[in-house]
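Recall the central idea of this unit: under ordinary conditions, the amino acid sequence of a chain determines the structure it adopts. In this exercise we apply that idea directly, starting from the sequence alone.
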Amino acid sequence: MKSILYITVFYIFLSLFAVPPTAAQGQAAGPAGFSQVAPGLYFNYDFGGSNSAVLITATAILVVDTRMHPDDAERLLAEIRRISDAPVRWVVNSQFHGDHYMGNAVFAREGATIIAHRDTQEVILERFDYEVRTRPFEQRGQNREDVVLVLPDILFDRKLTLDVGGIPVELIYLGAGQNEGDTLVHFPHARALHTGGVFHNRSWANTSYTPSVDGWLNVLRAMRRIDVDVYLPPHGPLASLADLDNFIEFVDRLHQGVKAAVDRGATLEETLAENLFTEYSDWRGYERRERNLTALFELLTVGEAQYFVPSSRAAPISP
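Accordingly, the structure predicted from this sequence is:
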């Protein structure tokens, strides 16, 4: 009886400080901020880096994405410990980009079980050295040598349901979006969805990893049918369904613009000159427009994601 009362009081306390999604969507660019989305569910937003989601219950904690460096993971853990001393039971790596799993060692030290999609681990194993070599650690005042490979303990294929202190959390794979292995994390109790690499809010998601833009659009539209009120993207602020629709239109417009140029035999230089997309110039990462469109051009002409083409391996890859 005491435990039931404690859990009830715990969630009442958390709900008093909840940040409504509409307010959180207006977060300005700046350093990482830790805010509450729903009872027990938190969003770690970092305009210049990667985001994380954290579910805190009375007896267990789940973390989605451990950020780019152990220093970042330590800061995330410190934010969690301001709220709860419960054990970090689960960690989900939503994608294979280094800025989403290179903090794994910190949470493995805490005893967390790490989970990822099977394809995510496959690419991590193939590309870990490259990711460590090309990430801008020195610019961030971080030691490259501190990054160690900590692989998932559990792999899944299509769907996996976790019990986090009595709250069900669903891991869902709908197919390759931005990346192979993109994992959605559904919090039914909060009507919230962490979108892995599938959806980046008001952000130029890196197309260097994409195996098929048509496939990505199909996954986005399938994800849209999951009935939630708020989306927790890996990059960009909290999002609504309208934000998701804007992103679907954005990906489709980029794809159609580059495809039309390729179909009529335009050169890469002509394609870049014709596809400025200035209407998205206020989105995060617009300065990478040429790189992203170049990746789409190569995907449509070479047939393989730029990230996996051997000649691309000397070029730094950003989130």
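Confidence is low (pLDDT under 50) at residues 1-30, 311-319.
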